[in-house]
Structure formats: structure tokens, C-alpha cells
Amino acid sequence: MSQVMNTHKLQSALRDFTGTQHYHRVLPRLLITDGVHFLANTTNAYWLVSAIYSHLVTQPIQSAFVVARLTVVGTMANLVLDDGNGHVICEQHIEYTEFPLDEVTFYCSYECRYWVLLLDSEY
């Protein structure tokens, strides 16, 4: 099966996640939804979940809501976290990735002691 077909099927499957039934604790103060869990397992992208988490817990974030967007160009990528209004909190250049999608957006919400990472379709 071609990479394009795999990408198409993955995008289609991700659109089906419109909520979550389970929160998966993957790092000390990070919960992920069923959709993020599916994406990370399917694409071997726990590195991306960890990268987002590392910025959430090390940056001076004044908001309980953050948007994390990964944009892939060829084999390089750029991860940007912003406050949801376009004000960049931090940016990370990734030298090499095999992530199959050109772009993916996550919403990060702070609830009590945990950051919750969810797909934009799950918000």
C-alpha cells in the first residue's frame, strides 16, 4: 500500500475522534486522549508527545490553553506552541522526522495538576 494511501487513511481515522472515553497518563503531568494515543501508537510519535510536554512544563505559560502545531516539510519539521491567539510561546526545529502527515494540531488544556493533550477534533 502506498504512503499516500496510508496518509489518507490516517487522516480519515483521526477525523473519527471527536471526544475521548479514556485519558492515558503517559508522563508525570500529562494525560492524552484516545485520539492522541491512537496517533502516537500508529505513527510511533511518542517523541512528539514528549516534545510538546517538555515545552509545556519548561516554558513560562500564563494560559491554561495552548495550541501545538507540527508542520512537516520533507524530512524536517517545525513545532510551534502558541496561546491560541497566534502569540508564539516557543518554537522547535526538528532536523529529521518520518512523521507521515504534513501538519497536525493539538490542543493542550491545563486541568488541576495535569496537562491534557488532545486532537483539535476532540476539543
Write the layout of secondary structure elements.
Blueprint: H1 3-15, E1 24-27, E2 30-32, H2 34-43, H3 46-58, E3 65-73, E4 76-82, E5 88-94, E6 103-111, E7 114-119
Parallel strand pairs: 2-7
Antiparallel strand pairs: 1-2, 3-4, 3-6, 4-5, 6-7
Give the overall shape, derived from the CA principal axes: globular
Sequence of secondary-structure elements: HEEHHEEEEE
Largest sheet: 7 strands, mixed
Strand content is 35-45%
Strands in their spatial order, largest beta sheet: 1-2-7-6-3-4-5
Question: What is the radius of gyration?
Answer: 14 Å
Give the beta-strand count. Answer: 7
> Which stretches are low in confidence, meaning pLDDT under 50 for 5 or more residues running?
none
Span between N and C termini? Answer: 32 Å
Count of alpha and pi helical runs: 3
Helix coverage percent of residues? 25-40%
Integer average pLDDT? 94
Structural class: alpha+beta
